[in-house]
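Holo model, zinc ion. Inputs:
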Amino acid sequence: MAVVNTPGKIEFQERSITGPSHDQVLIKTKAVSICGSDLHTFKGKHPFAQLPAAPGHELSGEVIEVGDGVGRIKVGDRVALEPVITCGQCAFCEKGTYNLCTNISFHHREGQGAFTPFFVANEKWLHTLPKNISFEEGALLEPLAVAVHAVQKSGVALGETVAIFGVGAIGLMILVLARLSGASDIITVDVQDFRLMTAREMGTSLALNNRGDRTVDEIIRRVGGLGVDVAFEAVGIQTTFVQSLQVLRKGGRAILVGLNPEPEVTLPSNIFVQKEISLSGSQGYCWDFQTALKLVETGSIDLSRFISHRVAFDSLQEGFEILTRPENQAIKVVVVFD
Ligand SMILES: [Zn+2]
Ligand SMILES: [Zn+2]
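Output:
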């Protein structure tokens, strides 16, 4: 299993496979994509994960063994992992809002990273992949579920205008989903030109480079002077956080998706009152894998378009390094296993 002991260096650790016990399933890993949060871990800058840490949670694979209490999942099934661990007993779990579980955790936070040839998971958190979804696409269901959750949370409706700050993989997925939800004008903002180019290919109406200081004005002017209905922040830094509030029309909604490595930001607090805007965070996913699966299965979204690089498991170090250099023009790097 891959671990990060020191910033910038992937090391491999021998581990014995324990399980599958009663309600568990043993998976032979086929594809794992590298997440922005894995990159934070790789650099030793993840806000919630101190080194040493085990990166990786976007996993798909084939079931090779099941515990004696497993019913739905069968040996030979192709599955994608929903990598949460919830208690099933707190008030939020009881209500079904398990992404807010008081005791929520994730496999990788418990030391079980997904960059490993074999993975043991609870049957409950496995989603069976239809035949027309590849393992690589299966690995990308996790980030898609994050985007689905954010777009559902925003309530984007027919004809509404949208600004998206940050068009890495999640921002691009939000773009495609906002379009599917009927948004009219979708403006994307990033500092990397190749990402803006990709956003254009994926249907943004206007792609703005955020290097200048006119971004907010340009967005507001573009939508007729009042501001956008919905803004997504998918970067996780102070500048775009503030911009995502400034571009809103009165009564507009901002959705915060990016995790900020800095624990605190300064906000223009009076605009909440003056403009009656609302700000909501979007945490992970909650019944969103099912929606993501349907969108992929029916061809509403093509996940293969988000894959820019593939590396073999033993070249994982290189996979991470690809993501650290903008000149590589990476969107999603998928680690493939044989
Ligand atoms: Zn992820
Ligand atoms: Zn719970």
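The chain has two domains: 2-140+307-336, 153-281. The pocket of zinc ion (ligand 1) is lined by residues 35, 37, 57-58, 142-143 (CB under 6 Å).
Archived with the compound record.
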